[in-house]
Amino acid sequence: MNAAPFPDRDTVADRLNAFAETDQAYLTLLMENPVQDDNLLDGLTLWLNRATEARFLNALRLSKAGEWLGSNAPARLQIRLMELARASQHAAYLAFREGLTQSKGLEKAFPKA
To answer: pLDDT digits over 4-31, tens only?
Structure first.
């Protein structure tokens, strides 16, 4: 599948940065369409990379976003989200991974036999 041209990664990163109710609804809608998966993950990567370069690391916000994404993302995205969270040992990625782990989204999507 080819990625849809909209939204671009900057739009997704900006929505994750604001993370208000309307932004969460937008991201939920985006996660419903498998064609948008690459755009979502590219935007998430950009958002995390911006967090690594920020002067102040808001670990609580990163963790909450990870927990929300882990709780709301469909099963097809759970492994890719965790792979992204493990892509770096920077504190921003660690905080995001902590939120994903707390959500138990990966375990819900792929329960142990």
So the answer is: 567 899 999 999 999 999 999 999 999 9
18 Cβ neighbours under 8 A, 6+ residues apart: none
Q: Tokens 């709780």 label which residue?
A: 71
Angle at 61 between CA 74 and CA 54, to 5 degrees: 115
The alpha-carbon radius of gyration of the chain (Å, integer) is 13
DSSP secondary structure string, 1-64? -PPPSSS-HHHHHHHHHH--HHHHHHHHHHHH-GGGHHHHHHHHHHHHHHHHHSSS--HHHHHH
Q: What is the pTM of this model?
A: 0.91
3-state secondary structure of 70: helix
The predicted-structure confidence for 59-71, as pLDDT tens digits, reads as follows 999 999 999 999 9
